[in-house]
Amino acid sequence: MGIPLPGEFGERARGILAGQIIPVPARDAATVVLLRDDPLEVYLLKRKATMAFAAGAYVFPGGSVDPRDTDHAVGWAGPSPAEWGEAFRADERTARGLVCAAVRETFEESGVLLAGPGPETVVADTTGDDWEADRLALIDRTLSFAEFLDRRGLVLRSDLLKAWAHWITPEIETRRFDTRFFVAALPAGQRTRDVGGEADVVAWMTADTALARARAGEIMLMPPTFHTLTEIAAFERIDRVFANDQTITTFMPSAREHDGQVVLDVPDIDYRLPDVTRDSA
């Protein structure tokens, strides 16, 4: 049946379906499913109710690509941008930006940094006033990711990431993102912390718990988050997630008319997502 799109949102959808409204372009973005073991849990943030996009939803760390994320000066260890481009069917420049955005946004939104002094090492601790100052400078864009890594003598560890999914926000939305999903393990010695900003709640929970709470109407999950959690729920440990031969399929929910009502068709969503019609991908 699809998810009903009532009110002004439904009218916008009708306008786009009729060719009267031109969809806004989708911006490149990256999202990271951060995992820890015993039991296998995911890190989720509840976006503030004041946010223009996905307000109140529980999401994974992530955000738009900063143009400077494509900078060749970014210290790099692990699979190359060209290899990531093959995984996501993207050009090398775009792939470089996506991986850098994934690592940068994870640090900005959780305090976890997937980088180290060399290709075999990872930062053990990112707490302290100096780290916090750098995190805030990255957020307000007064510091580029390349400058941040260079200042600290670090290289991005792309081998700590795994390509997982690709979702594009429906054309009916006024804010659209072309988002690649990654998975990553919480590095040994590091810990997440409540860093504020766009989120007012952070939590570790099993995928099954998050899905059950969403079905019960206790939390709100957008379809890509729900779908990804459903996939992660099939595993018991991080090593099994990384060993999985994941196929990257591009999903873009689409609107259609059904019995005089506009609905949004979303792949593999098996329940009515509460209050999701304003934040569908």
UniProtKB/TrEMBL annotation:
Molecular function terms in GO for this entry? hydrolase activity, acting on acid anhydrides, in phosphorus-containing anhydrides; metal ion binding
UniProt keyword NAD present: no
InterPro entries per record: NUDIX_hydrolase-like_dom_sf, NUDIX_hydrolase_dom, NUDT19
Q: Which UniProt keywords apply?
A: Hydrolase, Magnesium, Manganese, Metal-binding
Q: Which cofactor does it need?
A: Mn(2+); Mg(2+)
At the top level, the lineage of the source is Bacteria
Q: Where is the Nudix hydrolase domain?
A: 25-227
Transit peptide as UniProt keyword: no
What protein name applies here? Nudix hydrolase domain-containing protein
Species name for this entry? Planotetraspora silvatica
